[in-house]
Specification:
- The structure holds two protein chains of two kinds.
- Helix content of chain A is about 80%, strand content about 0%.
- In chain B, a hairpin with a 2-residue loop joins strand 1 and strand 2.
- Chain B contains 17 helices and two strands.
- Chain B has one domain: Cytochrome c oxidase-like, subunit I domain (Cytochrome C Oxidase, Chain A, Up-down Bundle).
- Chain B starts with a helix and ends in a 60-residue tail after the last helix.
- The radius of gyration of chain B is 24 Å and the shape is globular.
- Classes of the chains: A mainly alpha, B mainly alpha.
- The interface between A and B is large, with 40 and 46 residues.
Amino acid sequence: MEIPYTVEARPDTGVFNAKLGVWLFLASEVMLFGALFSSYVLLRTGAPAGTWHHGREFLNVPLATLNTIILIASSVTMVMSWASLKLNDFKKYRIYMGLTLLAGVGFLVVKGFEYGHKFEIGLLPKTNTFLAIYFTLTGLHGLHVIGGMILNGYFLGPGSKMFKTQPERFTNRVEVAGLYWHFVDLVWIFLFPTLYLL
Amino acid sequence: MALVDERVAHGHGEAHHEELGFWQKYVFSQDHKVIGIQYGFTALCFLLFGFSLMMMMRWSIAYPNQPIPLVGKLLKASGGIIVPEFYNQLGAMHGTIMVFLGIVPLAVGAFGNYIVPLQIGAPDMAFPKLNMASYWSYFIGGVIMLSSFFAPGGAAQSGWTSYPPLSDIAPTGQTMWLFGMLFLIISSVLGSMNFLVTIIQLRAPGLTWMRLPFFVWAQFVTSFLLLLAFPALQAAAVLQMMDRLAGTSFFLPSGLVVSGQQLQVAGGGSPLLWQHLFWFLAHPEVYVLILPAFGIVAEVIANNTRKPLWGYRSMVYAVTFLGFMSFIVWAHHMFMTGMGTVMSTFFQTTTMIISIPSVIVLTALLISLWGASIRFTVPMLFALAFLPMFAIGGLTGLPLGLAPADIHLHDTLYVIGHFHYVVAPGTVFAMFAGIYYWFPKVTGRKMSELLGKIHFWPSFLFMNGVFFPMLIQGLAGVQRRLYDGGASYSHAQPVLHWNAFMSGSAWLLGLSQIPFIFNLFWSMKKGEKVGANPWEATTLEWAAAPSPPIAHGNFAEIPTVHRGPYDYSLPGASTDFTPQHQLQEA
């Protein structure tokens, strides 16, 4: 027997299963990053006066600004790829999804340069507690970016075959992947000011 | 099994039901019923293993520094004696295994998986593949936990709470504990998300929220707690892993001295931070342990009193309220950390408030018994025993929730007695009730009533033999986590004689489980064959015929629900039960 509401929305809740699922998953993710942000706040406010190191001492704000722009742009292309599927334009979908993936790669490359430079000059997680929370938060965010890229890569490559047989279901899948991608983007929007600027 | 498959192929099955191979059918299955059984079997094995660890600990408590009989040969290095370091490993792993690998997977993974889709009239869980991934993630986590006993320096030994700074500087076993926890957390996040979507999206037509069986409500709130509370421990585990592997000092304060030498770390961390993150998970976790038990007991009581549950609506509101409140009580575990009187006052107030919904549920269940012609079946015996046992567990918790009383009782055996009364004769008895109650649905056969009673009475007796003296010892001031049970403390001497009594009770409690284990396996093959609804119950799982329900689909046709969950003894009805899918009051 088929499981109901995998494609069409359940009338009384107004969503299909995977959409509700991803929202709940994101709620859980909010709690994960929320706990880490709270730890950051607690450690920083708990540090004796004058002992806390600030991000601007170590971090490269222009590079991070570039990364912020890249990620926001990728959120836009992600929406465009979903909208193209809604308009039944598979070619455009592939272009926009490809751009999203490319932005992900760009983000990681920039991040790689940032990390590499810090390791070179001996700034490691164990150097001080600011760098410890910096590497933990951005590292975990980086893993989320990689996860999202694997997902998007699958929908660009082998997963896109589904568009021929079940176009609606595939469009839904891209929408769900998009929600996750926006969340990853949003986490960075919080990380950027709290780590680099404040 | 063959008969069942035939039904799928001929009766209802469409062309896409190709024959599944052995591996897909029994090992990497995506059928919620098979996954439920996998969860149940694995969790029962872990419960038995965790219990065995405790039986070893009890030897050391009653007869410290004496070689342990039977299993002593395994401890070659110490000549069969349980040394304090090994005792610490046993303690930490007993707690971890019982909570994270035993009770939660049994209560949520097994009962939730098997029963919830059936009770809401769904063909399966909403995401069968994730369901499978959830089980295997749990399995891997369990394997990592068990293998940590063989790590250099042994398994985790900083208590199930893994408080830093001790846990930060503990041997490799602690790192494995953290990795194991990560897998368990992934498993529970996947699982709980799946439950929530299933309950919200896949309810059968007509099954409105206030027609849901109370068990489903309990699982619903439980899933929210798992989904939103576990990530805090995930964050904490990541931070502790950074401390252990990357040399950071999230939990290490400046100037920490270990074995006479100052630790070479950056410092500036806060051990209290771990406690906040840990208890932010672990207090909701307490309700994860007890809510499914409430659910099972409610089902069994409604069925065996042949009456609707008294105050069903207030029970539903109570558990929902309890779910919200459980997120703002965590620091009552931390009154002794010096976090200040303002914080303590806040958390003791919320703690007193959260005791109210539990009392509502318990009272409603108690009043449900009033004036009923009770059937004393084996599941009902366990459910009835749950009520006073959980009441003792709950009421002994109140003094711990009040900061002034907690100063005296904190870290004593009174705490151990309190939460074991909640979980052991409380939740575990409810789990037994659930196993006896739903066994006919899972296998098509009943478990032996006689063996069940031989299991119940000694278990009930010895449970109290183990845990009640803990309250007495704790009030006398005996601390927890002492490998010699307090023998080296003068203030413990007047209550020391209880140790042998409690240990004896624990071993006899172990022996009392033999009839259950025998019954479980014997009844699978030889138990009395029964129909689809042997208890004459009303909820939808009993409408799924035959027992076990058909693989990948459950119902030949999705039923339509016409009434509330507990329409027992309706006036004018020809039978004393009217199933939820029945239209007329026949």
